[in-house]
Amino acid sequence: MPPGSRAPDRPGLRVAVVGAGIGGLTAALALAARGHAVTLAERRTGFSEVGAGLQLSPNASRVLIDLGLGPALRRAGTEPSGVTIRSLRQGRSIGAVRLGAAMRERFGAPYLVIHRADLQTILLDAVRSRPGIRLLVGRSAAGLEESETGISLALEGGNGRAETLAADLVVAADGVRSALRARLDRRPLRPVGEAAWRAMVPRHAVPAALRGEETGLWLGRGRHVVHYPIAGGERVNIVAVLPQPGDDGDWGAPGDPARLRAAFTDAAPDLAALLALPESWLVWSLVDRRAAAPMARRRLALLGDAAHPVLPFLAQGAALAIEDAAVLAACLSDAADVPSALARYAAARAARVRAIQGQARRNGRIYHAGGLAAAARDAVMARLGPDRMTERYAWLYGWRPA
């Protein structure tokens, strides 16, 4: 039995999880560890994730470590020593954030950066090794039908074949464009007029000044860039956020490198050299939507981006989904009454996800400030110093599942 699990006091529930992204895979593992029988349905038939790194702050890494994934995370992830914050145009230092050993000592878990594909592989390998989890690929959610004693999930395969899963509850972890969210909340996605451009390059090709273990954050009016080593330190993940009107809905579409470079013609020399390296970029339009109210009702629960998309200015999208999975499993640990357990889950997550969504929006305004607002931001960061910059987010990184 993996760490964090326990023998159930009563027969486990039948749980259908829709979506095998980071949140859905973590939910399947956490629920199976509590003795529940999980069927995980994914519309894709393959699981490749290209051009995307992600950050696992202590609030997320401790959940995965408790599920027995610590050794695999240490092999695949990188632990940056800190964040170096620079002016996008001048290249001068603005401030820093302490990570590395200081994070582990302060919060009891590491701050890791990892390629999304590597994390998904770790989670998939764990899912496939657990006898209490059944994985179905090439299936999309087509509908739900609830009763007093259960819920039926209709699935459709790519060949048009339909099937129905009978369950005690359904967990919708099917992303920001969830097919099931409308059952609880119909508010539309809101384009924010920006896009994240993502690429990876070999670390040895990066300008020497940017090859360190730290994360780099470059702030400018209306734009910012983040980069950090992934893939065991062999590659560097780059994310550039810049203005882009609308939302074409085509996430991960190829972007023209010339357009990206044109948006940063005034960048500091080292940053300009870094941004000139990728031969291809993938582009994600940024969208926002307030957390579903509620995140669960009766026998349906939302999880991750399906429940609460998070703008990338706090690096908490994957972390929040992982938190959701841990809290959901805890609420269902002794649940004979599924609707009451899901009501507890929704209540337990509401305030925290709203706070994190709000802080991510504020960070976006701070990162992209110009003029006097940027000068004030820079002065505050310099005055706080690396340790106090870290401590500002103790409320975030110190979270532990009850």
UniProtKB/TrEMBL annotation:
Needed co-factor(s): FAD
Gene3D superfamilies assigned: FAD/NAD(P)-binding domain (3.50.50.60)
Signal peptide (residue range): none
A Pfam family recorded for this sequence: FAD_binding_3
Keyword list, A-Z: FAD, Flavoprotein, Membrane, Monooxygenase, Oxidoreductase, Transmembrane, Transmembrane helix
FAD-binding domain span: 14-356
Residues passing through the membrane, by range: 12-33
Name this polypeptide is given: 3-hydroxybenzoate 6-hydroxylase
Source species: Methylobacterium isbiliense
